[in-house]
Design brief:
Blueprint (H helix, E strand, L loop, with lengths): L3 H7 L9 H10 L6 H14 L6 H16 L3 E4 L13 E4 L5 E9 L7 H14 L4 E9 L3 H8 L7 E5 H18 L1 H12 L7 H30 L11 H15 L9
Helix pairs in contact: 3-4, 7-8, 7-9, 7-10
């Protein structure tokens, strides 16, 4: 199995802004041949090996997360590894076809994370400079206690524009897209998953319910299509043929968690 350690060694562990090694690394990880499971192993490796903000594993983790946007059918843009005065210092961008934009802050750990106003300022600047109507911030976290960050977001003026997700949950979202695609097609599957990552107007809970039901209905279709041929082949009744098993419900609670991380109490499910 190819390890990130081996790739970094071949590149001289020199992932720096605007250098050839970073360009080659990004081209390498964007290849379609890499499975979701392979990318997860790379992300795990980066989390386990990273030792600081300027560590090559930390920078590899950032690029790997940004590259996942391509698998989710976003147009992606890599940001900077290190901040520089006068530059746009975001970690990356995911953009939908209609122009809706997600600005990403990728962290291997929640410590240390400065004020969320930094990401908020990126949103303000880009919105004015590029005339983007719908622009949002997303923290992708590797490990650590996320409650303090949640509380920061809740207490800021950007609480309706920012969300966070653990990288493991992001991988689960990618797996869900892969399950939906054979049934409803690549474009529709991507649209449903992209909508999960964009903040939904949550005063009307019906918006959330409809999105969950759409995905649940599609999931049911997938399971029914798998069960029926098996019944015909074996001539047996399938036990436990509920479209959503307990294990699946546990796995897909991440869909719901995305929308309830920020209740008024500041806690999350």
């Amino acid at each position: 199995m190819v390890e990130i350690k081996d790739v970094l060694n071949l590149l001289g562990k020199e992932l720096k802004d605007d250098n050839e090694q970073a360009k080659r690394f990004r081209e390498f990880i964007e290849q379609d041949k890499w499975t979701t499971e392979q990318i997860k192993k790379w992300l795990d490796e980066c989390i386990n090996s990273s030792s600081g903000a300027h560590d090559p594993y930390n920078r590899a983790f950032q690029d790997l997360v940004i590259s996942l946007g391509k698998k989710l059918e976003f147009k992606i843009e890599y940001g900077r590894y290190a901040g520089k005065a006068g530059e746009d210092n975001y970690d990356g961008i995911w953009k939908k076809e209609n122009g809706d934009t997600i600005v990403l802050e990728v962290k291997t750990s929640t410590w240390p994370i400065g004020s969320v106003s930094q990401l908020g300022e990126y949103l303000d600047t880009m919105s004015k400079k590029e005339g983007i109507k719908n622009i949002f911030g997303l923290y992708v976290i590797g490990k650590g206690e996320i409650q303090p960050l949640i509380e920061q977001i809740l207490g800021s003026k950007y609480k309706d524009q920012m969300r966070l997700i653990l990288y493991g949950d992001l991988i689960e979202i990618l797996k869900l897209r892969e399950e939906l695609e054979p049934v409803i097609g690549k474009k529709q599957a991507a649209e449903k998953i992209q909508n999960l990552l964009l903040p939904i107007e949550s005063i009307n809970i019906g918006n959330i319910v409809r999105l969950i039901l759409e995905i649940a209905t599609t999931k049911s279709t997938i399971v029914e299509e798998k069960i029926e041929p098996k019944k015909q082949e074996e001539g047996l009744e399938e036990e436990g043929n509920e479209p959503w098993t307990k294990a699946e419900l546990t796995r897909h609670t991440l869909i719901y968690r995305l929308f309830v991380r920020f209740p008024q109490s500041g806690s999350y499910v």
